[in-house]
Amino acid sequence: MTGPLTAILIEDATAIRFGLPTLLPDITFAAAYARAEDALHACPPADVAVLDLHLANSGQQDATQGVAAVADLVAAGYRVCLYTQEERRFVLAACMAAGARGLIRKSAPLPEVGKAIIQVAEGDVVIPQSLIALTELLVRKGSLTILSPRQRQVLAGRARGQTYTEMSRSMHLSESTLRGYWRDLTTITADHFQHTAPADIERTLGLAPGDLMDFWPTHRPDPPT
Amino acid sequence: MITGGTANGSGRARLRGLLAASTSAAGVENVLALAYGGARVATILQMIPSLPRGMKVSQEPRLYLVLWLLAAANAVGVVTFALVRRRGLSPVGVVVDVALCVAFLLLGTLAVPVPDRIGSWVGWAPGYALAVVVSLAGLPAGAWCAAVGAVSAAYVYFVAGAVTAANRSTIAGNTLTLIVLGAVAQVVVRYIRHVAAAADRAHARVAELARREEEQRARLTMHNATTIMHLLIDPALPPDTRDQLREQAAVEVRRMRAYLSRGSDTRSPSAPGDRHPAGPAEVALREVLEAGMSGFADLGLEPAVDLADGVMVGANAGEAVRDAVAGVLHNVRRHARATMVIVHADAEEDRGRWIVTIRDDGVGFDTATTPRGTGLAQQVVAELRRHRLTATISSTPGLGTQVTIEGKLAR
């Protein structure tokens, strides 16, 4: 990738829509929209689409939002990084299933927000702590089976909040090697959510049939690589 | 018989009152004094039937009666002293007692006919001497030897005039009885006193441990409350955190009220793992952790406890874990300046253990130079150890802190 990163922002809160580009000078925001439909209509080229998960408000009650907005933007060829206060892990998992490649909380410090957007723009997957724990659970329950032993170790360390420095010391591997394992692992995790039927996840986790269907995406386009 | 039972019961109560003492040692002295007095009373009762005959056959009936009455009065005095003072005679009293005994034996030669000095209660002084010797059991060895020697010598003097070839062995046996029975009584009394002293030391130790336990309970009860109050008076506290703290303050108020009213139950009223007679013996570790985390949402909590689903812990251990988690999170809130706290739980079946880690990304501290406060040292490490759980704390300045709690999986 050459030149500065370009992004579009879809956010219904005016202050954030105008403030975030100012607060993240390392990222060039090509455009900012209050509705996903407007972004999809204009469809400007960008390395990443930064999307607020909840876009419906009294001024735009019929706005497309949630996993539907994610799926539409992914189908349009965008890498989607969610910028949201949503914390329910199965909703976040549904967003991954819809093709989102990054999730960052609005309460996170600005440097973390900028870093997450850049990582997604560069093709990495950024998943929040709650989904790391969910991933560990899926691995333990036998739903996600393709991880190598090293990747499992890295996953266990991250699930417990260990830093790369600590894991490097205990696993006798360089931090860059560990970051490589993590990069592959998060990609596998995102693909798993996207290609696994919600019924399988429900069965694995002991949920009632249909528990995930309420917010799981009806169509799941492949995200750009 | 209700009446008889009641009378019997009140009699036992009176006896218990009579024997009541502040320490085991005092109780032993109380019982010994009563035993000494009882031996004197028994001796006097044995002397009574022979009094008329003694008066009749004595060569000095008046002296015989005076000596008899003095012996009886002394016995009554010893018993009265035991009942009133709840202990044996003072050293001066012992000297007087022994001197009187020796006098009865020596002067008895003037009042008791020679044939009645052996094998008859007309010559009551040797029987009385035996009761006196037994009551000397508490004396130091030197004083005991002197007193028993004096009484034995006086006895020999008393019977000297009655010695014949036929009764020589009887006199020797009686003399040895005075010495040996006195020695046995002294050994027994010393042993009982030793046991009583050991019991008192054990009681004192238990009382000290109970006092320390109470101090620790008070510290634990106050620790979280002081942390909450400290934060609540901070004018810069964010409103959402203040709301969380208000909820926790209400819990702490209930806990402190329970502590003040009962002095032993410092648990929050509605938390899982509460002990009560019909309560569960075990609680789910997940519920315990969720109870410990409640009220700390402002810390950026990331609970990851699914892997411990199905793990059960004892109710008391669960209570300790819940308080430990809350204690750690109070510390995080007050000191760590963290943006995220991960509470992770796992059941490692192959290693037969469950493990909980509480990890924050705050400022951390140097574990080698920073002393642990009440929260980490007592509420976490010491309290968990009491329930056979282990807790370790690792931290690095600038890289956060991790508290790890481990326990054995129930089979």
Automatic annotation (TrEMBL), chain A:
Alphabetically ordered keywords of this record: DNA-binding
Keyword match GTP-binding: no
Pfam families on file: GerE
Keyword 4Fe-4S: no
GO BP of this protein: regulation of DNA-templated transcription
Domain HTH luxR-type: from-to ranges: 146-182
InterPro entries membership: CheY-like_superfamily, Sig_transdc_resp-reg_C-effctor, Tscrpt_reg_LuxR_C, WalR-like
GO molecular function: DNA binding
Source organism of this protein record: Actinacidiphila bryophytorum
Signal peptide: none
Protein name in the entry: DNA-binding response regulator
TrEMBL record, chain B:
InterPro entries the UniProt entry points to: HATPase_C_sf, HATPase_dom
Domain Histidine kinase/HSP90-like ATPase: residue ranges: 320-406
TM regions (residue ranges): 63-84, 91-112, 118-137, 144-165, 171-192
One Pfam entry name: HATPase_c
GO terms, molecular function: ATP binding
Superkingdom of source: Bacteria
Keywords: ATP-binding, Membrane, Nucleotide-binding, Transmembrane, Transmembrane helix
Keyword Membrane: yes
Name this polypeptide is given: ATP-binding protein
Natural source organism: Actinacidiphila bryophytorum
